[in-house]
């Protein structure tokens, strides 16, 4: 079955450690996104990528880094520079061919808790 | 910049109709999406509007007015399972990319 997979679902890290969240899709989508969601909040864009080896900062990129070495994969690293990393992280992909085909398909999310 | 506004919370009775409004300001508008999100889960697609008017899909309908920067999601014959957060997202085109910007979400509580 085609889909977008995030792992792990729950992740605990000590303060000051970098952590990488995995996102893989087999939908052959060009665009991929990372969003952060805090309790009672909407989704805020961290980074997005339209094509392999290219990515752009979103609204809250500080303290995060990404790579897009393969079309299928868009990992997100939460660095120690991120002041408040505890949140629910959602990865999404989109065909990006315009119109309805800009619909975002979401993974199940990773809940990161930093202690 | 992009700005999306929707009410924080709404309550309704099982079997009733509820309308969730969304206003947006965006350049390079490329359509308006509605998603449903249950607590701790991923958002799931409900509807897409790019032209003015009403799109109906079963119990759910969505309306768009581009001149007013306004959309609404209409839920009919409410069921308890409709209790969820409803996210409005305006998609804009920028540098060849299409980027959805999400509102804060409207938490809908359906009670018996």
Structure description:
Chain A has strands spanning 4-7, 10-13, 19-25, 31-37, 43-51, 54-57, 64-66, 76-78, 87-94, 105-106, 110-114. By secondary structure, chain A is mainly beta. Chain A is 0% helix and 49% strand. The model of chain A has no long low-confidence stretch (mean pLDDT 92). With 112 residues, chain B is mainly beta. Helix content of chain B is 0%, strand content 63%. Chain B has strands at residues 3-5, 9-13, 18-25, 29-37, 44-49, 53-57, 60-65, 70-75, 84-94, 97-102, 106-111. In chain B, strands 2, 4, 5, 9, 10 and 11 form a six-stranded mixed β-sheet that branches. Chain B has a five-stranded antiparallel β-sheet with strand order 1-3-8-7-6, with no helix packed on it. The radius of gyration of chain B is 14 Å and the shape is globular. The model of chain B has no long low-confidence stretch (mean pLDDT 94).
Which terms would index this structure?
heterodimer, A: 115 residues, mainly beta, seven-stranded mixed beta sheet, four-stranded antiparallel beta sheet, B: 112 residues, five-stranded antiparallel beta sheet, globular
Write the layout of secondary structure elements.
The complex is a heterodimer of chains A (115) and B (112).
Chain A: E1 4-7, E2 10-13, E3 19-25, E4 31-37, E5 43-51, E6 54-57, E7 64-66, E8 76-78, E9 87-94, E10 105-106, E11 110-114
Parallel strand pairs in A: 2-11
Antiparallel strand pairs in A: 1-3, 3-8, 4-5, 4-9, 5-6, 7-8, 9-10, 9-11
Chain B: E1 3-5, E2 9-13, E3 18-25, E4 29-37, E5 44-49, E6 53-57, E7 60-65, E8 70-75, E9 84-94, E10 97-102, E11 106-111
Parallel strand pairs in B: 2-11
Antiparallel strand pairs in B: 1-3, 3-8, 4-5, 4-9, 6-7, 7-8, 9-10, 9-11
Structural class of chain B: mainly beta
Task: Give the termini separation of chain B.
Answer: 41 Å
Structural class of chain A: mainly beta
The H-and-E topology of chain B, N to C, reads as EEEEEEEEEEE
**Could you report the average pLDDT of chain A, rounded to the nearest whole number?**
92
The greatest inter-chain interface is formed by:
A-B, 29 and 28 residues
Strand content of chain B: over 45%
Indicate the percent of residues in helices of chain B.
under 10%
